Amino acid sequence: MGNNYEKNFSKKQRKILVLGIEKSGKTCFVQCVNGKELNENNYVETNDLDIIDVKKDKFWLQFYDFAGCERKRIFWRHHYIGAQGIVFVVDGSSMESFQDSLDALQQLLKERNLIKVPICVFINKSDIKVEGEIKNKVEDLLKDASIPGENHRIVNNIQGSNKLKQGHQQVIEWLAKTMVEI
């Protein structure tokens, strides 16, 4: 039967999952990477999944932008196979939504199908004010996940702002260095 992902993805194409809870800035992250202007007055929440192709240097990045509401998160795992990188977006300005983000990230880090997939946590909204406690808790969680051993993960976190278009290039550069070919 063979691996369909080898047929669907070339060596110059990368499958990147963009995950996080609702209203964290996932769609805006992809729009910024794609060079699109953000229109705060015309915001539309992702219903299920949007797939956006972006040409970066010598690669086509295929972003899978998922809905982040709790009832839709169960569908994320259907797209783990063939993923070469993950951007997990966290609202760095909201302690109220942070625990939900932390729980979703912990679940993601437990997924055995993603052990070799690099995960970059993008702490969004640094233009407002990133809560120090949020950054510290993300760093602690990722430090535990990156301990060498059977479940060793390649992880990183980068602060940025969709509104100011900051941090996106660093995320893409880090993923480009760490992504594995399928």
Automatic annotation (TrEMBL):
It holds the Pfam family Arf. InterPro entries: P-loop_NTPase (IPR027417), Small_GTP-bd (IPR005225), Small_GTPase_ARF (IPR024156), Small_GTPase_ARF/SAR (IPR006689). GO terms for cellular component: Golgi apparatus. The keyword Heme does not apply. It comes from the Eukaryota. Mg(2+) binds at T27, T46. Keywords: GTP-binding, Magnesium, Metal-binding, Nucleotide-binding. GTP binds at G20, I21, E22, K23, S24, G25, K26, T27, G68, N124, K125, S126, D127. SMART domains: ARF, SAR. One of its GO terms (biological process) is protein localization to Golgi apparatus. GO terms for molecular function: GTP binding; GTPase activity; metal ion binding. Belongs to the small GTPase superfamily. Arf family. This is ADP-ribosylation factor(Arf)/Arf-like (Arl) small GTPase family protein. It comes from Tetrahymena thermophila (strain SB210).
